[in-house]
Structure formats: C-alpha cells, structure tokens
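re: that chain from earlier
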Amino acid sequence: MTSRVYTVGHSTRTFDEMTSMLQKNTIIHALLVAGAEVVHIMSATVTKPASLNGCAHVDDAHITYPAPCGS
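^ sequence. v structure.
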C-alpha cells in the first residue's frame, strides 16, 4: 500500500505527518490561549517562542480556523 503525499508550501508530507502536525499545532494554540508559555525546542541550546499562526481566530478563549490559510 502506498502512502498519499501532500504538498504544503515547499514541503511534501504524508497524511500521517500532516495529521500529527495539525494535532501538535492545535495543542500549542490551546495552551497559548489558556495563557501558558510555549516554546519550540530548536536544538540543545536554542528555543523559539511559539505563537498563534495567522489562520487561528480567538474569540473569548475559543479558537476557530474559519478559512484555509492564504484564502
């Protein structure tokens, strides 16, 4: 069985990779909206603060994604 491949920007990902990425982003967004400090661990010595992406809309602590990014 071959795996479907999806192209996102200049990256190519399988369905499982896309699902995992979306789940991770949803959890990150929920933590940020709840007031948690979230950082991406880039390496053993570098971290980067996480932020809501442009697709997320927050209204009274509820997160929605009203339209696909870039539309």
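Residues 5 and 14 are 4 Å apart (CA to CA).
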